[in-house]
Amino acid sequence: MSNHSLRFAPGDSPAQNITLVGASSSRYEEDWLSIPHSHDYTELFYVREGKGRLLVNNSEYSIARDDLIIINPHLCHTEISTGSIPLSYYTVGVDGICFSFSGQQDFRIFNCRGKQTDLLFYFNTIYQELDRQAEGYAMICRNMLEILTIQLRRITDSAFEVIPARHPTRECAMIRRYLDSHYSEPITLDTLSELSHLNKYYLSHEFSKYYGISPISYLNRRRLEMCMELLENTDYGIAEIAGQTGFSSQSYLSQSFRRFCGITAAQYRRQAKKRKQT
What does residue 171 show for φ and ψ, rounded to 5 degrees? Predict the structure, then answer.
């Protein structure tokens, strides 16, 4: 996978509570592993070339050149390339806002083909400005982002509102930090309930509302992410990795890994070594 990410960190902050987190340019290649993930910020995609599928939770949606995709914070998603032309796209991350669409969806795909505006220009400009960081780049990026939001209202017949992003409660944020650092330990929903002093069903509901995934599913995903890191950077056996990352057995790790990544842990390790050699 070819992926070039740039961070936005100007010395001064904009007056409004909207922050450009960063931008990236991605293109499908043979080693692309479509791993479900989420972000704490809103993500805007613009497909430059190719065709593919957007996976959101347990559903799939077709995407193609000149599609614009908006994904609100904490929504689990990934992309898969299909067809002979590799999928390539720009992404822009924006913190402080989210989009309220009709039907209470947390994402929307807009078909921009034939529209009388060049959204690709704005995505490309933001990416290039972050890359070069010439004088005044921060102001240009903020202005491009504001224009891009205005253009969205022009090109779509689907009403939406731009609203302040929902931030997690103190308890949910604390539980997430705990899971990030204690993933290797035995953890149950009862453990988290006792830690947060919240009813376990209420905790699960609130955590899912803010992060788009239940606490235990988040824990399993965190463990799998650490498995991937160990598979890439160590020679530990699968059973040893299972023990280090909190899985009860090698077979449970293998089952979860294949469901999460679509390949076995051993296949992932071989692909990772091959990428390092090229």
Answer: -65, -45
With H, G, I as helix, E, B as strand and everything else as coil, classify residue 92. strand
Is this prediction's pTM over 0.90?
no
Opening angle at CA 257, ends 251 and 258, nearest 5: 95
50-60 burial, b for 16+ CB within 10 Å, e for fewer? Answer: bbbbbbbeeee
* pLDDT tens-digit readout, 202-241: 999 989 888 878 999 999 989 998 999 899 889 999 999 9
Which residues have CB under 8 Å from 13's CB, separation 6+? Answer: 19
What CA–CA distances, in Å, run from 105 to 41, 58, 91, 186, 209?
16, 14, 20, 34, 13
- CA-wise closest residue to 97 among 214, 25, 14: 14
260 by DSSP, 3-state: which?
helix
Do 125 and 33 form a contact (C-beta atoms < 8 A)? no
Q: How far apart are CA 142 and CA 20, in angstroms?
A: 7
Q: How many CB atoms lie within 10 A of CB 156?
A: 17
Q: Using one digit for the tens of pLDDT, what is the confidence trace for 179-193?
A: 988 999 999 999 999
- Among 3-7, 72-76, 171-175, 250-254, the minimum mean pLDDT is found in 3-7
- Cα dihedral sign for 148, 153, 158, 159? positive
Cβ pair 223, 243 in contact under 8 A: no
Confidence grade of residue 97 (pLDDT, cut at 50, 70, 90): confident
Q: Are 206 and 171 in contact (CB under 8 A)?
A: yes
Structure tokens at 258: 């294949």
